[in-house]
Amino acid sequence: MGAVEISLRQANRYLLTRQNLLSPCANALQAVRDACGLQAQIPSTPALSLRARVASFTLADYDRMLSQERTLVRTWAMRGTVHTLPADTMARFTYIYVDEASPLAEPAAKALTLLQKGPGTRNGLAQRAVAELGVPPETAREWFGPWGGVLRTLARRNLSVHMPTDSADVPVILTEQWLGRIPEIGTLDDLQAALLCDYLQGYGPATAQDFASFTGLSQAWARPAFERLREELVEVRLEGSNLPHYMLKTDLPALSAITGEEPAPVRVLPRFDSILLAYKDRQRIIDDRFRTRVYRPAAVVEAVVLVDGRVAGTWRMKKTTRELQVVYEPFRRPRGGVAPRAVAAEFQRLARWLGLERLNLTVATEAGM
């Protein structure tokens, strides 16, 4: 059977459906699974991502899932960045990066010893390393550096997670102490297959290059995963691309049911939303001529507004005691009609969701737009 052919618009609507952005779902944990985790180095962004995906979702729901139920955990994962992940399947997003042939290096082993005595922040653990283990101060600061240092090594081995906090200096705790167990790991091959299945269910059809970009691993690593699942995959040809895209055969009926004409409501998404990081080729979600307006230097990914399923502009916000101040920068000059009103209404709903009384919306335009 030849490859299935689909348009960009069909691919867009299918993506929005899988990511609960066409119609919100009722289960926040499932939405996190569908997204393959939510990037969370800015602590507020996962809750904003879930607001767009889950009906009646609140900030209290997110805090409860992290702090009380502990069905979600926050730790280092894909692309070496902090993510919010489902606790029971966190290993497929963390341990997948481990070289099992290499023993735990001495600095990470000493950090593990410190955490066995109790949780600590990066700064606190560095001080404890000096006081309790005799580590030189400069070495201790390097071990517990701003990009995770040895703590990221422990996280990838499924040994530590972040404790929820509003502080910039986040406490780290042993996974077993926080969850009461270490989630099942299994073999690296099993984890690789599970991660690829999760990814294709959420973001397929996709290429090996897309999967490598999303995970932060090499294409040489990604291709064998596709090969092992060959019998479970079907090839899809995407409009505008010469590369083969793949999806799970079991998902093909759902894709075939998509016409591309399904109405797509306005969605406000935060910085680093997973839909913006899912592909190396981002044409199904954003026009290439606007790409640099979203994907900035130093790996910054701006907050965006989706209009008719595609990125239509960026936004930033500031909160005061009673007011949400939003600056919205559309890619095209706004004109009267449904779209501008719908964008303003969505920001108004965001203000209410944040518990603020007023919205102060500024629409910024660039010269020559």
Structural descriptors:
369 residues; alpha+beta; Arc Repressor Mutant, subunit A; 5-stranded mixed sheet; 3-stranded mixed sheet; 16 helices; 38% helix
Overview of this structure, please?
With about 375 residues, this protein is α+β, with helices and mostly antiparallel strands. It folds into 3 domains: about 5-90 and about 185-255, no CATH class; about 90-180, Orthogonal Bundle (Arc Repressor Mutant, subunit A), CATH 1.10.10.10; about 285-365, no CATH class. It is about 40% helix and about 15% strand. Strands 9-10-11-12-13 form a 5-stranded mixed β-sheet, covered by helices on one side. The protein has a 3-stranded mixed β-sheet with strand order 1-7-8. β7 (about 235-240) and β8 (about 245-250) form a beta hairpin. α6 (about 105-115) crosses α7, α7 crosses α8 (about 135-145) and α12 (about 210-215) crosses α13 (about 220-230). The model has no long low-confidence stretch (mean pLDDT about 95).
Record the SSE blueprint.
Elements: E1 4-6, H1 8-18, H2 28-34, E2 38-39, H3 45-51, H4 59-68, E3 72-76, E4 82-86, H5 91-94, H6 106-116, H7 122-133, H8 137-143, H9 150-156, E5 160-162, E6 172-174, H10 175-179, H11 188-203, H12 208-215, H13 219-228, E7 233-238, E8 245-248, H14 252-256, E9 267-269, H15 291-294, E10 304-307, E11 310-319, E12 323-330, H16 338-353, E13 358-363
Parallel strand pairs: 1-7, 12-13
Antiparallel strand pairs: 2-4, 3-4, 5-6, 7-8, 9-10, 10-11, 11-12
Helix pairs in contact: 6-7, 6-9, 7-8, 12-13
Low-confidence stretches: none
**Which structural class fits the helix and strand makeup?**
alpha+beta
Distance between the termini: 46 Å
Overall domain count = 3
SS element count, helices = 16
Mean pLDDT: 94
Strand order of the largest sheet: 9-10-11-12-13
Count every beta strand, where a strand is a DSSP E run of 2 or more residues: 13
